[in-house]
Design brief:
This protein is of the alpha/beta class and 270 residues long. The chain has eight helices and ten strands. It has a single domain (3-265), classed as Rossmann fold (3-Layer(aba) Sandwich). The strands form two sheets. A seven-stranded parallel sheet has the order 1-10-9-6-2-3-5, sandwiched between helices. Bound molecules: 2-amino-2-deoxy-6-O-phosphono-alpha-D-glucopyranose. 2-amino-2-deoxy-6-O-phosphono-alpha-D-glucopyranose is lined by residues 36-40, 67-68, 141-143, 149-150, 170, 174. One of its GO terms (biological process) is carbohydrate metabolic process.
Amino acid sequence: MTEVIIVKNQEEAGQIYGRAVADLIKAKPDAVLGLATGSSPLAAYQALAKIVKDESIDVSQVRGFALDEYLGLPLEHPQSYHSTIHRTVVEPLGLDPEKVHVPGDILNGAPLEDGDKIALAGPAYDRAIEAAGGIDVQILGIGTDGHIGFNEPGSSLASGTRVKTLAEQTRIDNARFFDDDINQVPTHCITQGIGTVLKARHLVLLAFGSGKAEAIEETVEGGVSAFCPASALQLHPHATIIIDEEAASRLRHKDYYRYAFAHKPAWQGI
Ligand code: GLP
């Protein structure tokens, strides 16, 4: 079963992620972290940064691969995921920027029309992840429509990294980062595919607030369906979903998830 952990708040969720990843880095100093943008993972990155500092953990060898990027934004644009990942993860954790990759890095704002360049970027990114030995822990947020990365409803559950068209709802949701102006939100993106995400050895999905309750219900207790891309986590042998009470509010088996986590042997970790 996908493990569901219901927490009080984002800080508690962040602590669980931070501890797991810190222990991973201690055991494997060149661990490969799958990184995500959005507000949901922020407390998790902060918790990890604090543990890294408090326990003087050497992160100089840690490698990272982000999930996705807008198409058409130059890397230095403040809302490009390249900039966002550097601001929210690379700097606070003190990672080596050379070792952290974002899918649009080799495109650097190339327009959608530049098909030759753009069509090659996805497969090249998947090859780079494979060459690094695969992702050890992939952190994920979830869109209100159930998307992970930028895999919108209908995305192939076997997809690799590729260009996608953003859903209108996603552009509306993300307009808050673009002066509340949907016209400034790019229409296309490059995203790790669902098949790419499923290859990571451990998936940790974080969701908070009532706005995510429906997507979480479909993800955890609905059928596996491309209509809810996050439901693909049900196919993964090691997926952990950490959510607050509001995001969990529509789950039918909440009591069981709580009971199972409370009785989990400590040695199992998450
Ligand atoms: C964007 C990102 C996703 C993220 C989602 C939810 O669409 N591409 O990776 O999960 O936003 O963001 P938030 O966590 O801010 O709700």
